[in-house]
Structure prediction request, 198 residues.
Amino acid sequence: MRAFLPTAATIAAAASAFLPWTAASAAPPPGSGAASSPVRHCVVHLTESGRVSCYATFTEAINDATNGTIADAPENARSAVVDKGFNVRLNALATPKGRAAGIASTVIEISFEHKDFQGTSLTWEASSGCNDSNDVEWQAASVSGWWNDQISSFRTYAKCQSDHWEDINFQGISTGYRNTTSYIGNAMNDRTSSIKWI
Ligand SMILES: [Ca+2]
Ligand SMILES: [Ca+2]
Prediction:
């Protein structure tokens, strides 16, 4: 376990500070009941105490999550993540185990608000990917802020598999470790509150 281990309080504080859905525009936050929820795209920096940054476009989010390595991601997140070429580029960011921590440039997962990789996106940025062992490589003890209880699908990268948990601190039911999943299932839909990656 070399990963930053965010406490619930840390992530909660970061999320509340960096998920100001109504601060950047007059539009209502997603899930406020309006069918016209604005699509926002956020990045969780796992190497920076779970700092969260949000953008108007997926392109900007991927630019941040890759430290500028991929500056030309499509604006349409779903179109991007179902594109083999785009996924190859993201997977290529994964660095060998042992690379100095703190060089955050690898994407390990992109979570989505809706099934089939639609709606708002949440990109998880780490400093390295996963491997073939069962060791937990990264974890987020809390998915707080607007993103709590929202995830319905996800795509994994960098050889990672993720386990989505119902409650914070990996409590309650969970999906078990999975690769890319177009629908998280009725039992866990809109319930993810913590995640582990192996
Ligand atoms: Ca959802
Ligand atoms: Ca939950």
Observations:
- The first strand starts at residue 41 and ends at 45.
- Residues 8-19+39-197 form a domain with the Gamma-B Crystallin; domain 1 fold (CATH 2.60.20.10).
